[in-house]
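Reopening closed ticket. The problem is back. First fold of the pair:
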Amino acid sequence: MQITTEEYQLFRPLLFSLGYRMLGSVAETEDLIQETFLKAYQLREDTIQNKKAYLCKMMTNLCLDLLKSARYKREHYVGPWNPEPLLLEKLHAFDPSEMIIQKEGLSIAYLRMMEHLTPDERAVLLLREALDLTYSEISAIIEKKEENCRKVFSRAKKKIALAEGESLNYEKNKSMITRFIQAFQTQNMDDLLDLLSENVTLYSDGGGKVHAAIHPIVSVPKVLALLYGVIKKAPDDFYFEVKSVNCQPAIIIYMNGKLQSILSFDIRKEKINEIYITMNPQKLPIV
């Protein structure tokens, strides 16, 4: 199948949107995109009626295969698993069609909720909501009856219903995170208690590669104790900045001359409900 440069630039963001939401991994998504295009090049042109649909089907099936084979690996991951943070400015070859990957459903909180779904549930939900495909189109991609696809979608929506309350107002969330940083630096407990939910939970992902909490940390005192403990041990060249990660404001921390961790937040009802610290070097982008 022949794919022009224009078609490649058109379809690649689409495949990335699908793959990253399915896998929560930039590196794995990039690998499967290349595999999808390589397989497509080997197909006869006259056997393909709709290039977009066929590429989506190939990408979806590759993601499903990887998810099913990776289950054992994910179950034996050391400590909490956070999706790989996505810094859009570090991705290449995205023109205005990049907008497709900037829709809702990219936040770390949402992608963590996706882990509660089976591979098939994840695929149907994304094809329906992220790519706005019809049940007929979804049926052709995952090779299940339309009625089955509707049932899978309904089941998936119920499982991730908790994620629907997440605030995605970027500027409002950025203001809250700025307040959190100021309150944290000045140890203003009144402000911290106002910003953090009573049962705020921190998920620290080191993947066994670096020192990190292997269990979720729950409650305001315990979360703050851990964060202050990290800062107390920080080297002199420690610094941070607030940047857009997964289309939401996040804190990027640098130590020893390199990116050390990324803090992402789940904000609901004007409270920080969850904090995700990703420290696994294999998940951190090169900046």
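Second fold of the pair, where the issue appears:
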Amino acid sequence: MNRDVDAAPVDIETTRETVRLLLGPDDVPEALPAVPTGLDTLTMLLRGQLAVLIPEVEAKASRLPKGSIPRYCALACVGEAAGKLRLGDGGTPAVRVAVARKLARSAKALCDHYDGLDGEAAPEGRKP
């Protein structure tokens, strides 16, 4: 993979740990953990992690054939995550928590695609 010298490496485990702090293991509203201290820091961290993950997942997905379902799903997730990055942080505590959890769900999905696309490959001799 041609990566710029200045590009940050993808750290899936750290991203997943950040997600767990905001969503918990079940990721259902009635089982969400209490809002962690340092919410603003976690939100900023997630934004940075998404900024690194988005182009990486997009690059992996783009190597798959155009009709590939994993490619389509990963690129849809990339678009969704990019849209979430445009969300403001929110003016009230409840909105700030909601935004952070939306970012966390996008990060979780991108981590899953990042890992899942490792097993996918374009057929030999066929351009994606």
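Update: turned out to be a display glitch only; the data is intact. Confidence is low (pLDDT under 50) at residues 1-5, 122-128. The two ends are 16 Å apart (CA to CA). Please close again.
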